[in-house]
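So, can you check these tokens?
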Amino acid sequence: MKILLKPIITEKMSAQSEKLNRFGFVVDQRANKLQIKDAVEGMYGVAVESVNTMNYGGKRKTRNTKAGVISGKTNSFKKAVITLAEGDTIDFFSNI
């Protein structure tokens, strides 16, 4: 099971990473906090202090088109906010 799906790079998470040394990831919904901690430490070689997780449910969406009303649903996902130890950091843009 691939635990870390993608990093969250938003204005809010960038501010938290600079100020509080926190980084966000979209993770597998079946992963627990210990698995997420081990995955981040193994992938980036940093020390993780804490892991906070949040589950987001999918939202119902409808739109009107020429063919009529189309309804659907967005995907649900799990987000993890990782707090790193003092002095450690993750650079997402190093390999671009």
About this structure: DSSP finds two helices and six strands in the chain. Strands lie at 4-8, 22-27, 48-56, 60-65, 68-73, 77-84. Helices lie at 11-19, 33-44. The first helix runs from residue 11 to 19.
